[in-house]
Specification:
Elements (H helix, E strand, L loop, with lengths): L1 H15 L13 E16 L9 E16 L2 E10 L4 E12 L4 E9 L26 E10 L4 E11 L22 E2 L14 E16 L2 E14 L4 E16 L2 E11 L12 E2 L1 E3 L2 E2 L5 E2 L1 E11 L1 E5 L2 E15 L2 E4 L2 E4 L3 E12 L2 E11 L32 E11 L1
Antiparallel strand pairs: 1-2, 1-24, 2-3, 3-4, 4-5, 5-6, 6-7, 7-9, 8-14, 9-10, 10-11, 11-12, 12-17, 13-16, 14-15, 17-19, 18-19, 19-22, 20-21, 22-23, 23-24
């Protein structure tokens, strides 16, 4: 029933929008093939003392990009290979069609219209929303993009399921849809680590609406809403949670800023029908072992940067920036009969981007508290937080900042 109502709603939007007369457009047919190769140079300083293996270089990714247009139908395709994670997968792949100058659609694996897009960060790193599936998320479905006028834009989408998984998604004990993907998705918790009972859940049926308004030619404000279904195969039932965002993204001369606030509730039930405080999530073939992600939280992120043109041989521009995100959670962990609230997660990334022709180099000083990628215990932090020897969450103010100095060098063609 949910699927039927979603399709009816999207078809109604298409029919009632002004100027939705079908036309092929004047674009000529074309085929473009490109891609990128990226490398990382890393120095980690986390909870434990640094060792010889804390400093290394790695082949981050290589990717293939294809874009084409034939008879008014467009194709956008991107496939990524991650040697570090021993996996590969599709990031996006969709067909597109313009019904008019103002209305277009995409069908396939496409970016979820939610929050600041394409990214909510300036650095090579994403902000905290990405690590809980709410930034640069890609799913399988149907999306419409409508410009009401020069200032007001509406996006509406229905997604049947998460983006396709690559070969590393069957990682025991978290085997199931979603883990080996580009985007972070809710995946099964087959061992019941997070709630004391297994949770055979996965994403199924999602509806998104995004409204954006240009206050100035380079300054957009907006609101976004998301209704996410989490299907439990044991209960044979789906629970529907939500995510809401208020966002702003602007460029003022050489200065840029991104501000966003997210409230979400994943409304997940385990196999006993009990509402969960934490859900298991995964991407790149690596689930968040042990801690998962808080099922209910708020995320505030702010960032700013300044573009500086230079003439230093091949270097044409340098952009220093600072991005910060705070995640506050609604949940608690029982230890020896006592309840302990989940601890906040922090992420701070000062750095700068160097542009030299087709080479983009991000130099980042990524700092984190209770961040699953900035810790010796990968995957922990966004649930209850780092734990002491007794299994109790350590207050965030008592944690030291974990640091990863990261240089990402990418050649884009």
């Amino acid at each position: 029933m949910f699927l039927k109502y979603c399709l009816i709603l999207l078809l109604f939007i298409v029919m009632v929008m002004p100027g939705s007369k079908v036309f092929a457009g004047d674009d000529e047919d074309y085929l473009h093939v490109g891609g990128a190769i990226r490398y990382n140079v890393v120095s980690q300083h986390y909870e434990h003392s640094a060792s010889a293996t804390s400093h290394y270089a790695t082949w981050d990714t290589w990717r293939l990009n294809v874009s084409a247009m034939y008879s008014g139908v467009s194709l956008v395709f991107e496939y990524r290979f991650y040697p570090t994670f021993n996996t590969h997968f599709i990031k996006e792949g969709h067909l597109g069609y313009s019904f008019s100058d103002n209305l277009s659609m995409q069908l396939g694996v496409t970016q979820v219209p939610f929050g600041n897009i394409t990214y909510n960060s300036h650095s090579w790193w994403f902000m905290s929303g990405y690590y809980v599936g709410l930034e640069d998320d890609h799913n399988m479905g149907l999306k419409f993009d409508y410009d009401v006028n020069d200032r007001f834009n509406i996006m509406a989408a229905y997604f049947r399921q998460q983006d396709p998984a690559g070969p590393a998604h069957n990682v025991a004990p978290y085997a199931g849809p979603g883990a080996g993907t580009y985007s972070y998705n809710v995946i099964p918790d087959a061992d019941g680590e997070l709630s004391g009972s297994p949770a055979h859940i996965r994403e199924l049926n999602q509806l998104n609406v995004r409204l954006g308004y240009m206050l100035a030619p380079t300054f957009e404000v907006g609101v976004s809403g998301q209704l996410k279904g989490l299907y439990n195969s044991v209960l044979d039932d789906a629970e529907y949670g939500h995510a809401l965002a208020v966002h702003a993204d602007g460029t003022f001369g050489n200065w840029s800023t991104k501000v966003q606030f997210i409230n979400y509730d994943y409304a997940a039930r385990n196999d006993d029908g009990v509402m969960m405080d934490r859900v298991q999530m995964g991407a790149y073939g690596d689930p968040y072992y042990g801690d998962g992600v808080a099922a209910r939280a708020n995320i505030l992120s702010v960032g700013g940067g300044r573009s500086i043109d230079v003439d230093w041989g091949p270097i044409s521009n340098i952009m220093p920036y600072v991005d910060y995100a705070l995640m506050t959670k609604d949940g608690s962990l029982e230890v020896d009969g006592q309840m302990f609230d989940f601890e906040d997660s922090h992420m701070l990334v000062p750095g700068f981007l160097i542009t030299a022709g087709n080479i983009w180099t991000y130099v980042d000083f990524a700092l984190g508290k209770n961040h699953p990628w900035l810790t010796d215990n990968f995957g922990t932090g966004m649930g209850a937080g780092q734990l002491d020897e007794a299994g109790r969450p350590i207050p965030a103010e008592d944690l030291d900042w974990n640091l990863r100095f990261n240089i990402n060098i990418g050649y884009y063609f």
